[in-house]
Amino acid sequence: MSEISFSSIYDGVSLALHAAFPAVQVHGGNVKQGLNPGDLNVVMPSAGQSKQVGERFLRTPTLDVIYYPKVGVAECCEVADQLTMLLRDITTPEGDLIHCTNCEWTIEEGVLHVLVSYDHHAYIPQEPVLMETLDIEMEG
């Protein structure tokens, strides 16, 4: 198992979308223009890291897979079903299998948002902090 980074999870989600929807344009990030009905966009609105014990950290990346429907709300519901099943397990480009820890979706202003979280633990070695040597002069 390699070190799992936030970008490897992002890439794993993008690769899963490309494989499952080869005819669909998958964008990444803040796209100002060029989005068409039927397109997907992947953004990472939040990610965190908190120390657990020693050199073990809990990493909490959440991705928003956005779908721009061609027809309307019914299509969003159908695509939401497909995406929740597709994104429950992803494989990173390095070959690591990551399981979704939370998935929820909403439709805002006619656009589908599927929020998926891939919480996982990471071992991050820290450089030891060594104390300086104290010179003690003995009197007497």
Description:
With 140 residues, the chain is of the alpha+beta class. The chain contains two helices and ten strands; from the N terminus they run H-E-E-E-E-E-H-E-E-E-E-E. It has helices spanning 6-20, 73-86, and strands at residues 26-28, 40-46, 49-51, 56-59, 62-67, 89-91, 97-99, 102-108, 111-117, 120-123.
Kindly state the mean pLDDT as a whole number? 91
Spans of at least 5 consecutive residues with low confidence: none
In terms of DSSP E residues, the strand content is 25-35%
Number of helices: 2
Helix share of residues? 10-25%
Give the strand order of the largest sheet, numbering strands 1, 2, ... along the chain: 1-2-5-9-8
Tally of extended strands?
10
What gyration radius follows from the Cα positions, in whole Å?
A: 21 Å
**Quaternary form:** single chain
How are the SSEs placed, and which strands pair?
Layout: H1 6-20, E1 26-28, E2 40-46, E3 49-51, E4 56-59, E5 62-67, H2 73-86, E6 89-91, E7 97-99, E8 102-108, E9 111-117, E10 120-123
Throw out a few tags for this protein.
five-stranded mixed sheet, 21% helix, 10 strands
In short:
The protein is of the alpha+beta class. The protein is built from two helices and ten strands; from the N terminus they run H-E-E-E-E-E-H-E-E-E-E-E.
